[in-house]
Each structure stands twice: as C-alpha cells, then as structure tokens.
Amino acid sequence: MTSNPYPLGLRLHGRRVVVVGGGAVATRRVPALLDAGADVLLVAPELTPALRARADAGRLHWVPRRFVPEDLDGAWLVQVAIDDPTAAASVSAVAAERRIFCVRADDRTAATAWTPAVTRHGPVTVAVLGGGDPRRAMTVRDAIRDLLAVRLAPTQSRPDGATAAVGVTAGRVALVGAGPGDPELITVKGWRLLTEADVVVADRLVPGLLLDELRPDVELVDASKIPYGPSRAQEEINQILVDRALAGAFVVRLKGGDPYVFGRGGEELLACAAAGVPVTVVPGVTSSIAAPAAAGIPVTHRGVAHEFTVVSGHLAPDSPASLVRWDALAGLHGTLVILMGLKNLAAITATLIAHGRSPQTPAAVVQEATTGTQRVLRSTLGAIAADLVAADLRPPAVVVVGDVVDALNG
Ligand SMILES: C[S@@+](CC[C@H](N)C(=O)[O-])C[C@H]1O[C@@H](n2cnc3c(N)ncnc32)[C@H](O)[C@@H]1O
Fold first, then answer.
1. What is the DSSP string of 333-380?
2. Which among 305, 308, 268, 302 is positioned nearest to 286, based on CA atoms?
3. What are the respective helix, strand and coil percentages of the chain, to the nearest 5?
4. Which of 138, 169, 302, 395 is the most exposed place for a label (fewest CB within 10 A)?
5. 107-118 confidence digits (pLDDT tens)
C-alpha cells in the first residue's frame, strides 16, 4: 500500500546537501538548492560547464570522483542525479542507513523524498506533488502559477526600481512594451499581462493584432486619439492610468517598442507613483535594434562596429531645444540609429557630414519594420535624404548609419 507523502518546507540555509552526479539532472537541481542557501557538496567525476562555473565561483564544493559513503558525513539531504541504478541504489542505501532523506532521479519509487514542481511569487512558494507523476505535478503547478501571477504579481511603484509590497493588489498599472510591429514580438510576460487587463491604453504604433485578441469586456483607450497638444495629451494619458487604477482596474499601458525608449514611460511611472498606484514595467523589443535587424543589419558586428548609438531626430540639429550633440556623433565610427528622423533627415545628414562623417558611409532607412508592409532603402549618408524623398518612404521609420549596413551583404 502506498501512503500519501508528508509535505515539508526544508530550511536548508547553511546545511549540507550532497548531490551525486554532475550531469543534466544535477544542473537543473543545484540552482534551487543554492537559492535555499544550502551548503552543496557535489560528488561527480565530471561536471557540466554550468556546474563547473558554479564550482569555480566558489558557490559549491566539488569532489571530482565517484561517491564514497563518507561523503554523507554531516549531510541533511542527498540528491542522487545519476542514471546508473546500481550506483544510485548504493547511495540511497548509505543514506537510509544514516536516516538521511534521499531524492532519486533514476527511480522515484525507491526514493525517500520527492522534489515537487514549484512556483515562487515573492515570499510565497507553492510546491505541487503529483502522486508520483511529475507531469501531473507540472500541469497543476502551471495552472496555479498563472492564477497567482494575476493575484500576487510583484509590483514596482518607485522610480528607483525598488519593489513595493507584494500582496493582492486592487488597481495597478503595467507599462508594457509591445515590440516594433510584429505581434509575435511582444514578450511572454507582456502578452500574459495583456490577457489579464481590465483596461488597455494603447499607442498608435502598437500592433493592431494584439488589440484584436483582447477580451470583449476590456475597455480599450486609444491614446493616439486623445486631443490637445502633445504635453496635454500626455497629462490626459497619465490621468486615465491613475483614475482607472484607483477605481480598482488592472490597466495595461501598451506602448510600441520599449516603454523607456522615446516612449515617455518614465513620465507615466512617475505620475502613477505620485498617486500611489503600483506599476510593473515590462521591457519591449525596441525598434532601434529590431528595425535594423529585420532589414538584415546587425547594429554591431565583429570587426565592423563596437558601438551603437540611438538618437532621436525629432528636432533639427540647429533647434535650440535639441539635446543631441550631432557634432560629437559625427566623430564616432560606430553605428548611429536615428528614430523619428525622417522630417529632419536632410539637415541631420548635412550636419554629420559637415562635422567629419564621410558622405560615403553606408546608410539605410527601414520603414514599418517587422510588419507585412516593411520597406528598406539602402543608400549612403550623402544621398539618403534625397533617395528617401524619391522612394516616398514615410514614418514610422528608423535610419541606420554605419558600415554595419553592408556587413551582411556578400
Ligand atoms: C515615439 S518613438 C517610440 C519608439 C519605441 N518606444 C521603441 O522602442 O521602438 C517612435 C519612433 O520609433 C520608430 N519606430 C517604431 N516602430 C517602428 C517600426 N516598426 N519600424 C520602423 N521604425 C519604427 C520610428 O522612428 C518612430 O518614429
């Protein structure tokens, strides 16, 4: 007859745990033991590179040989992570003799302890045992993890990135990067939060297909339709985020690319923080890297560019309000990625050339990158502004300047 296992939370800090085996199973098991503060002794003739790195860093003790009974001196727990059933049985026999619980990767029925499927949410750890069936345990764990992600999401309400109290939150805001255009380029976390939102406040450049898939009861606020000038519109958006969250809604502020790359995400975070609304920030795939990549242009390439600079071109170089040192940028050898730069491109390229960047430097414009209507124009720094007009390229587009433009072309 089999009895039910008795669940326990082992407090392993500073306590010796012996892991026998240095392969794939041990590689998966050791991080959680180290996370629990265990004093890990790893007994194995060889280690995977990941375990080796931990041993080299002094995070665990490695004995490079096969197991001997004395290895269990002072141990509280042993994990057997080897395939050889005879060797595994002899380790668990020694463990049983010494009344040390033994987890066995090779044979669960012969083990005196099972490792559960685990999900961690701040201070909450949920451990699931599936009656000896690890797949069942993982399925149940995944369902609980999804549920807790909504109820217990760690929140961040301070601009310094400090994490606020974790607990069941009423209203809150997530600033989510939607990626550059292809709906599949949102992150897994961003997508999950989007499916959980009560209110979605979306920018113009957000992939339409993401919005198509929202639940019918979700309130969708189109931030690009908010009237007034740009700064007034931003205040309106801030207010919508705060008001809806204070009314108890989970608000996703969905922004093109990454929320903090020319996305005014910082202002929204500050507005929420001032109103005491917790905010989670989910970074996104920024067009400044994704648009060149989608056109076959790596922003760095060995032997070609060791740096890339992302700059906004929304103000002309001679504008008193511009914060960009175009003269200094002209002196760099690396890649220059210009966002919002089409309108001022003639002035920008002329300034870069006037301050020393060669007019022969390869340059490209990538319009509507990663979408079905993506267009790419390749030219040179000296000619691209005119070529752009001739080709009738329009925003949203990213301009790339540098030898990387040709790096992958033959
Ligand atoms: C206000 S900025 C926002 C940038 C965004 N936060 C990001 O990380 O990609 C808007 C500019 O991003 C660039 N952009 C955004 N999506 C783009 C795309 N799919 N293709 C080309 N450029 C894009 C354009 O330069 C556009 O004018």
1. -SEEEEES-STTHHHHHHHHHHTT--TTSEEEEEESTTSTT-EEEEEE
2. 308
3. 35, 20, 45
4. 302
5. 888 999 999 988
The residue behind tokens 């141990």 is 75
Contact 292, 407 (CB under 8 A): no
Ligand 1: residues with CB < 6 A are 180-181, 205, 255-258, 261-263, 286-288, 291, 339-340, 366, 368-370, 395-398
For residue 183, whether the previous peptide bond is cis, meaning omega lies within 30 degrees of 0, is no
Residue with tokens 């032997």: 303
Please count the other Cβ atoms lying within 10 Å of the Cβ belonging to residue 90: 15
| Cα–Cα distance, 22 to 50 (Å, whole number) | 10
With the C-alpha atoms ordered 183, 185, 189, 190, is the resulting torsion angle positive or negative? negative
Residue 60's nearest CA partner among 102, 31, 90 is 31
E strands, 212-249, in order: 219-222
* HSE-CB of 27 using CA atoms within 13 angstroms: 10
